[in-house]
Amino acid sequence: MYAMTPRCHLPPPCRAASTTPATSTALSTPPPSRAGPDELRSTWAHRAWTLAGSAAVLSSLSTSATLAAADADANGAAAAFAAPLAAALAAYSLADLATGVYHWLVDNYGDADTPVLGPQIAAFQGHHRHPSTITRREPCNNLHALARAVALALPPSGAALAAAGAPASAHAFAAVFAACVVLSQQFHAWAHGNPRRLPPGVGAMQRAGVLVSRAQHGAHHRAPYDNNYCIVSGMWNATLDRHRVFEAMEMVVFLRTGVRPRSWDEPDAAWTEDYDDTAAVAGGDTSLDTQ
Ligand SMILES: [Zn+2]
Ligand SMILES: [Zn+2]
């Protein structure tokens, strides 16, 4: 199956020989411009959505703790809290996988005009052109889009879990998964940040693999631009890339729809890093350090 993959790293005649009508937005997308100072600041709407998402997460955690405490009275604290803790760890792991799938999707398909996901697609694809911009965004500016999704989705999910009589571990899973998805954008920003300017402990967590590392995410920003999509801890990247999972998914999409992912084609100016822009960033934060 993989031998038939019409990826961009195959010789040009392979691509020319394809007879399937192919669609790619890579060659028609103009390079996104560098964000101005006003685009990097948090607005009151950004803060409100981030607050709402945080409140939703805290509410789910509170529900989980309340249920676990009630269970502790009957079964002991160790037994009552073991399952929610295990669920939280599972959520932390699966959130990394989920961010990888989502990042792969918005990096490779659609454009700014795509319904619903258009702004996220433009943001992720623009990030490849101006990767250091994320380090200069104010926190709520960076987090608000995913926080809004959590603010809208988590409360009804929690209500459904409560109505079904779900245990503490289910609420813990939902809360930690949502929190990790929102914070993935902060972890992503730290992966681009100057190590000397990161908050205390962040560098150590990156080196330990608790948070996605600069080296691992730096590889995502280098050719062939088709790997290391996960941005929570990065724990799934090696497995997904070794087994060429995204390449297989791209083949399924291509064979069913004729749509080529961006990563198959030679990146154009809308996809590759604007090195002049990076050099112009005050303070010298870079995206491609491998330390
Ligand atoms: Zn990307
Ligand atoms: Zn990045």
Automatic annotation (TrEMBL):
Keywords assigned by UniProt, alphabetized: Membrane, Transmembrane, Transmembrane helix
Spans of biased composition, class Low complexity?
Answer: 15-28
Q: Where in the cell is it found?
A: Membrane
Q: Taking every annotated instance into account, which residue ranges of this chain make up the domain Lipid desaturase?
A: 92-264
Annotated GO biological processes are:
fatty acid metabolic process
Q: How does it sit in the membrane?
A: Multi-pass membrane protein
GO terms for cellular component: membrane
Name the Pfam families on file.
Lipid_desat (PF10520)
Question: What residue spans carry the region label Disordered?
Answer: 13-39
May I ask which residue range the UniProt record assigns to the signal sequence? none
Spell out the family assignment given in the record's similarity comment.
Answer: Belongs to the fatty acid desaturase CarF family.
Q: What is this protein called?
A: Lipid desaturase domain-containing protein
| UniProt organism field | Oryza rufipogon
Q: Recite the lineage of the species.
A: Eukaryota, Viridiplantae, Streptophyta, Embryophyta, Tracheophyta
